[in-house]
Amino acid sequence: MEKPGAKRKFQRRHKDGRMDEAKEISQLEARLSTGAPAPGTNPLAHSIPPQQEKVSDEVAPFVGAKLFEQLPISNRTKRSLADAKFINMTAIQRAALPHALCGRDVLGAAKTGSGKTLAFLIPVVEKLYRLQWGSMDGVGAIIISPTRELAVQIFEELRKVGKHHNLSGGLLIGGRKDIDSEKGRVNRLNILVCTPGRLLQHMDETPNFDCTQLQVLVLDEADRILDMGFANTLNAIVTQLPKQRQTLLFSATQTKSVKDLARLSLKDPEYLAVHAESAVATPARLRQTAIIVHLNEKIDMLWSFIKSHLQSKTLVFLSSCKQVKFVHESFKRLRPGVPLKCLHGRMKQTQRMAVFFKFCEEKHSILFATDIAARGLDFPAVDWVVQVDCPEDVASYIHRVGRTARYTSGGCSVIFLSPSEEKMIDELQASKIPIKVTKPNRDKIQPVSGALAGLLSKDPDLKYMAQRAFVTYLRSVHLRGNKEIFDITKLPLDEYALSLGLPTTPRIRFLKKGIGNALKNAKYKIDDEYDNLDFDNKVDLAGDTATAHKNIKFDKEEDDSNYEEIVSVAIYQISVLVEASLLSHPMRNF
Ligand SMILES: Nc1ncnc2c1ncn2[C@@H]1O[C@H](COP(=O)(O)OP(=O)(O)OP(=O)(O)O)[C@@H](O)[C@H]1O
Fold first, then answer.
1. Could you identify the atom of ligand 1 that is nearest to the CA of residue 86?
2. Ligand 1 pocket member 90 (CB < 6 A)
3. The pTM is what?
4. Which of 18, 366, 429, 438 is the most buried (most CB within 10 A)?
5. What ipTM does the predicted assembly reach?
6. Tell me: the pLDDT tens digits for 123-170?
7. Residue 103, Cβ density class (10 Å: 0-12 exposed, 13-18 middle, ≥19 buried)
8. 376 lines ligand 1 (CB under 6 A)
């Protein structure tokens, strides 16, 4: 039974607590307004003189601060950061936080693994805290991420930063269940971490979904959101948000489309590119190598690499889901002596998350992945990043290798380039990427093609997988824009097929009949199969088609007079279908 007077004591303590907080908030606000960095300056260029570091909290300068403790942030956030062992700030945090805490729009660029997530989460939490945001105030901040896995990871980091706060957060991503509880709860959440399609779906479908009070919008990996064909979705989202808000936009690579987006959605932004002046564009502790090998030697190289790195944690990038599936399945049967996993967009969300968390935990493991794993994902302690297929461009290379050598760790990367892809090295070096080029040590190569041929001869399903892997790889090369690097006519197709264990070279229809017909095929395929795809695959498809569309522009001389029309019909059809699926996709749980 409650002791007499206990309730009164609790109420008094609660009231005292609120008064302390009100006092803290007014002190924070005073400090933020008197100590704000001058617009257009980079706080990294400052340091706090030692005699001023110890002055009383209320007036202590914070431009040039190196420790979180020195920032004008609440005691609740300070305690949360200390619990997570976040003590010293990284460069992007030192540069961006003083501006962002003052409520300014920020366009932040810093290398992979440099701590951009905290640079936007702390201002989000602090702004809502200073406004004493509560459950009745609804959605106060929205954080948009290009992929579900990255959204989950941001959400986990948000839990750490918000540990001692009373704010509520929710994860709005596709592929999750229990629609009613999501619908019912979404309006009571203060911070939403979401993927663009899912957010728009809520905006369109959830009764009384209200963002009119939104204070902060964050776009993480904005260039990737745009690359994935989400520009229209993003525009539709931004037009539904109040204009009076703070917007924070972060990425490791800044493209022209990001600058366009920034022009549209940011107001007088502080442009904070902490590594722009740096001599190299990739993390300092990353050792990068390129090995020139023929396309038909790549699979042997990969197998040999795995066999000689059984004690490492390695992320292997391939360009299509079907390649990932084939290499994973066939290598698994050959039992290299280390756990193998795969991650690609055609997997169910529950499987994707299970693989993501398992790979995070494992010390020695190999993960085969498409570019779905290239951005933002913070797998702890990855030793090696192996790129079997050449990435689309330099930005994509930077994000892939950025999965290792994160924060203060070291790491290594290797890219296998065929002779026709060698020009990529010039592009990387021109973009301040220090990469050593070597030839393969043929004595150490352990051939695997014979073993694959043996497997394929016994298993028609695996053989079919190999054929699909072959075709999708060539299609990906065909669709890439930069024909100086991605030239299908220079590839040894028969030898490549043999290297995958295939006795005969599969027919490549899209090469024979021209790109127009390829898209026509794609269009029919979409008609036939579209309804069977899950939401995620539909979104992937839209992304693929957007990329195809972009790349087709480079192929104008293609001898197929009606391709423009076919392309536009295919694109239109996909956009209608995706829109329909956004509308009809069932709501799911957090
Ligand atoms: N100040 C800090 N002190 C200690 N660890 C930190 C600090 N800031 C970030 N980290 C850790 O460093 C890792 C990388 O941070 P984060 O994922 O935010 O990098 P990023 O810049 O967003 O990378 P990417 O461009 O690849 O998305 C994370 O594990 C994060 O918890």
1. 3
2. yes
3. 0.74
4. 366
5. 0.97
6. 999 999 999 998 889 899 999 998 888 999 999 999 999 999 999 999
7. middle
8. yes
